[in-house]
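1st attempt posting a full record on here, be nice pls
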Amino acid sequence: MADAAAIRDLIQRLEDAMNSRELDLLDDIVAEDFVRHCEATPDFDVRSREDFKEFLRSNTASFPDNVQTFVQVVVEGDRAGIWTTYEGTQQGPLGPIPATGRKVSFDFGGIFRVEDGKLAELWVTWDNMTILGQLGALSG
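the predicted structure (as tokens):
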């Protein structure tokens, strides 16, 4: 089992790779058979590192300036809990929602499982209503 410092370093490297758009760095951070669980995005079935990269590319196509900031990281055993702030401007379609030019800012939480020194699994959740409201996609 990796120690807490090694896991924290892994999480920091993930944050840096996502925010710099250097997805090739994920090869050393994320397991090849990485799985992402997320009720908020049922159309994205992530069952590999390449699927995860494709999810991140899709997200960046919708929000090219997105920044994810891991505000809190808590490590216990082979798990790392994160509380993250996401900020970005919708410049591309998001599912059926055309580009709005609006900024979003919301928090999300997740738990990573680490195996053999890499991120192997992620459970993540957020409030879609907050995002849809900020994009003006909810009728009043």
